[in-house]
Amino acid sequence: MRFGRPSSAAWRERRVSETGPTDKFMRTVARARVALGFTCGVLVFWLARPTPATIAVGLVVAVAGEAIRFWAAGHLNKSREVTRSGPYRLVAHPLYLGSSVIGAGLAIASGRVIVGAIVAAYLALTLTAAIRSEEAFLRRTFGSDYEAYRRTGIVDTARRFSLERAVANREYRAVAGLLAALLLMAWKATYNGAF
């Protein structure tokens, strides 16, 4: 079994309901995750106490997360197919995996455990909501094709990474956001006299 693709009979029978109050809440969270991210970002920045060492370690981790995202974006044909190449051969949601690693890197860069807790809570809530919403969409749109991908892990080894596809998926926005966050951490470290 590969990470991200449970193969139990119970999982195969699971269907995402879209009618209950929890589902409505999760759809709302999924739609509001960018705004929530900016709100959490302000709080994180205010609480952060970065040092050169925490920024250096956090930078390495966050760049690894962005590399995962960039790799995934270079394979993804969003809303047009069930993508089965690149990191989608290994995990069902590599963009969200990359975002989680970036979040860990920024939490490390902040130098505060409380920031790590805020980032973890934000990611757990918003990514769970996004994954539920996305999987419901994929099941509605692609039906048995998506179910077969999740159940069997059928992959596409012929498709190669495409920079054009990564740009079309606007991954440059995530790169710019990461750069801005790390520059703000460096500025805060300088302001606090850590540099």
Characterise this structure.
The chain has 195 residues and is mostly helical. It has one domain. It is 70% helix and 0% strand. It contains 8 helices and no strands. It starts with 8 loop residues before the first helix and ends with a helix. Residues 1-18 have low confidence and may be disordered.
Helix/strand-derived class? mainly alpha
Bin the strand percentage: under 5%
The structural domain count equals 1
**Helicity range:** over 70%
How many distinct beta strands?
0
How are helices and strands ordered from N to C?
HHHHHHHH
Number of helices: 8
> What is the rounded Rg?
18 Å
Main beta sheet, described?
none
Shape: globular
Mean of residue pLDDT? 88
Sequence stretches where pLDDT stays below 50 over 5 or more residues: 1-18
N- to C-terminal distance: 47 Å
Features of this protein?
disordered N terminus; globular; 8 helices; 195 residues
Quick structural overview:
This protein is mainly α and 195 residues long.
Walk me through the topology.
Layout: H1 9-13, H2 21-47, H3 52-73, H4 94-110, H5 113-142, H6 144-152, H7 163-168, H8 171-191
Helix pairs in contact: 2-5, 3-4, 3-8, 4-5, 4-8
